[in-house]
TrEMBL record:
Subcellular location: Cell membrane
Protein name: histidine kinase
Lineage: Bacteria, Pseudomonadati, Pseudomonadota, Alphaproteobacteria, Hyphomicrobiales
Domain Histidine kinase stretches: 1-153
């Protein structure tokens, strides 16, 4: 079917707002006026955005923002980006983040509950959607997880997240 990304992301934000409030995190959304349609399964994509936004709130910094942006189909395809201002993730962990049960073993994430399955599910769903997950993270600066749809360039449909910059 068709999924409208601005509405789907807005729905996830509404659902997670109580958790964000409890953590002292403000969620900000930037989105175009016009709808952004992609081909996909709405329940699965909601699961993707829930996982990414929940992680950003959980591992982000109390009192800081989580910035979400949805952008439209031109020029390079629709994308959704979820950015936090938490401790960030060091480069050696990035390629393993989407492995089942993998959690970064630092005090900051050890203290938070989780099974380490969220990003494995995200990867699985996005691969089925021909979408790509990109991660940019700098220690001390925070992290950005970007979902890029219609990523059909041969060799760029990577099953693991990529560092880009
Ligand atoms: P689950 O999602 O199954 O409840 P989880 O959040 O630990 O558990 P994932 O969502 O797969 O599992 O994330 C894996 C690990 O990646 C986390 O435990 C955390 O260490 C790290 N991580 C994920 N997102 C972020 C982020 N935004 N900032 C810092 N570390 C992160
Ligand atoms: Mg998670």
């Amino acid at each position: 079917g068709e999924v409208e990304l601005v509405g789907a992301v807005g729905h996830v934000i509404d659902t997670l707002r109580p958790m964000a409030n409890e953590l002292g995190v403000e969620i900000a959304l930037t989105a175009p006026e016009e709808p952004v349609q992609v081909v996909g399964d709405v329940d699965e994509l909601i699961q993707v955005f829930s996982n990414l936004i929940e992680n950003a709130c959980k591992y982000g910094q109390t009192g800081k923002r989580v910035e979400i942006s949805v952008s439209g189909s031109e020029p390079g395809g629709a994308q959704v980006s979820v950015r936090d201002f938490g401790p960030g993730i060091s480069k050696e962990h990035v390629p393993r983040l989407t492995e089942r049960f993998y959690r970064v073993d630092v005090e900051t994430s050890r203290a938070k509950k989780g099974t380490g399955l969220g990003l494995a599910i995200v990867k699985h769903i996005l691969t089925r959607h021909r979408a790509r997950l990109m991660i940019r993270s700098d220690l001390g600066e925070g992290s950005a997880f970007i979902v890029k749809f219609n990523d059909e360039k041969p060799g760029h449909l990577s099953p693991t997240p990529e560092l880009y910059q």
